[in-house]
Amino acid sequence: MNHAAAIVLLLLCSTVAFSQPQLTTKSKKAYELYVQADNFRVRGQFAEAINLLSQALDKDDKFVEAYFRLGLTYANMKQDTKAIEIYEKGLALTNDLRLQKLFWYDLGELYLLTGSYEKAMKVLSAFVNNESQSKSRIDRATMLFRSAEFALKNKNETSAYHQRPLSDTVNCFVLQYFPVLTADQKQLIFTRRESNDPNDTEDLMVSKKDDRGRWTPPVSISKNINTRLNEGTCTVSADGRKLIFTSCAGRDGVGSCDLYESRKIGDDWTVPTNLGRNVNSIDWESQPSLSADGRTLYFVSDRRAGLGRNDIWVSTLGEDGRWTKAVNAGKGVNSQFDEMSPFIHANNRTLFFASNGLPGFGGYDIFYVEKDSAGWSAPRNFGAPLNDHDDQYALFITADGKKGYYAHEEDLPNGHSRSKIFEIDIPAENQMKYRSNYVRGIIRDKDDQHPLAAKVELINIGSNAIESLVESDSVNGEYLMVLTQGANYALYINKPGYLFKSYNFNYSEVRDFQPIVVNIDLEKVKEGSVAVLNNIFFDVDKYDLQQRSAAELQKIVRFLNENPGIRVQISGHTDNSGAADYNRQLSEKRALSVYNYLVKSGVDKKRLSTKGFGPDKPVASNETEEGRQQNRRIEFRIVK
């Protein structure tokens, strides 16, 4: 033996001689088996580790540290009940505070995860009262204690959700999870794995509802998206035409897992593109969620600049079509622990997410926050029975707020797991404050009916702010725009070379509503083209413009500036109530109010004329209130 080898051997022997007295066993063989077992445990070879630790305990059944490592191994395998049993045996054998704290800390979380809330509070309290060195462990144990306290108080406060798995037509794989739906609830997209093999890749699948409301067998979403590699969690815009998903290998990635975008044109998905370094980092990005119009993106990243290990981040789509630099969603959403699976509801006001850093029923629970002018509200637990002592990672709520979709995973006796997608009915008393509807249809050329790609803007009339912006499909002309309770909306359809159209949807007081279908025919900019200005407002018998007319008036100014060669007539119309002459005078004054606004906004008065027709040119019957309302209008006509 050379001199260097002798030194190494001496050091190893010294380590054994020094380390062994630190343990509770005096059996050299038990110690050797204990050390060998941990070499397997840290590599995930749990069966081998359990075998060696069991042999060590056969040699010395008072070997406390072996009980701890054996319990830890079962916990790594998610066999919580067995882990608790082993931990309890080891804890009963020692009065050493150093060892007791190890057991208390791990048992506290396991008791919480199995619904033994009082036991969890007891051991976690003992840990916090006796630990003085590890602040991170004290913080974690304190949070777990708060969760056990919350769960004990709220475990019987269950809501009357009706939960059921989707049919085996959809749940046909070993694992299916992270479901998302289009706003019309006609398409369900989810991630699937065909086995428990960790090397098995993920793919994105889509199932569609047939005419009888049944989900059809899921198929691969697209050959342009799914590959032989990994395509993971995804999100889709409300109209089903923008998809963002996770891919961890085989593409032009920035980090370990990146987010990619694909667009649906007609019936085909485009080749995905990386969202770029404003969104993706050298670290892990996953679990995206798009706003209804596809212009705000929430996602999860473990990048170092976060508040915890996994945080929720936000990026928006700029006017140049590029995603802006992602920012942390902030302390109102993120904790010092882990937040996962964000889901922004179609109303763009309610954000759901999973967290293990807030008081809950154990593990990850679903929470939600609501946004107003001051920011996000304090997080609220979604409650039982969806949340329980098992982990719950993701939830999707339909636009109308009446149904939810999530994946439930269960451990099988063979150590494997299986997950299924569930649907829940949400009772009226538990539905969110702001629910959403949608308007959809086809945008066409009025003359030859060919589909048009046009911009569709939704403006909140009260705040004069753009709420959403989408585009119709360039192949089939289809569009879908989400409308949310609590506001009066102006909807504008714009395309260069065409006269814009406006619609009004007053949802400020609406409590129940159905989807709306509006097919839109745009007229080319030419003499005789007419637009009804549906968002010009006057008080009864008055001609002063109301402030909420600003969005429509600004739209007219922009249109005239973009088309400097045209002249227009602004005409006022009334229903047949009252004297005809009076109505003609009133309609003329209203048209003149619009004229004056445009002139003050810089439009050359030579391009403008006015006319008050009163009741002379009705577009609907005056026999109904709905008809009379249509007849009370301001029109915008292109003239020579």
TrEMBL record:
Protein name as catalogued: Tetratricopeptide repeat protein
Signal peptide boundaries: 1-19
Compartments reported by the entry: Cell outer membrane
Entry keyword annotation includes Signal: yes
Keyword Zinc: no
Region of interest (Disordered), ranges: 609-633
TPR repeats: from-to residues: 64-97
Predominant subcellular localization, coarse grouping: membrane
Transmembrane segments: none
Domain OmpA-like: 525-640
SMART domains: TPR
A GO CC annotation given for this chain: cell outer membrane
Pfam families given in the database record: OmpA (PF00691), PD40 (PF07676), TPR_11 (PF13414), TPR_8 (PF13181)
InterPro entries: 6-blade_b-propeller_TolB-like, Bact_OuterMem_StrucFunc, OMP_bac, OmpA-like, OmpA-like_sf, TPR-like_helical_dom_sf, TPR_rpt, WD40
Keyword annotations: Cell outer membrane, Membrane, Signal, TPR repeat
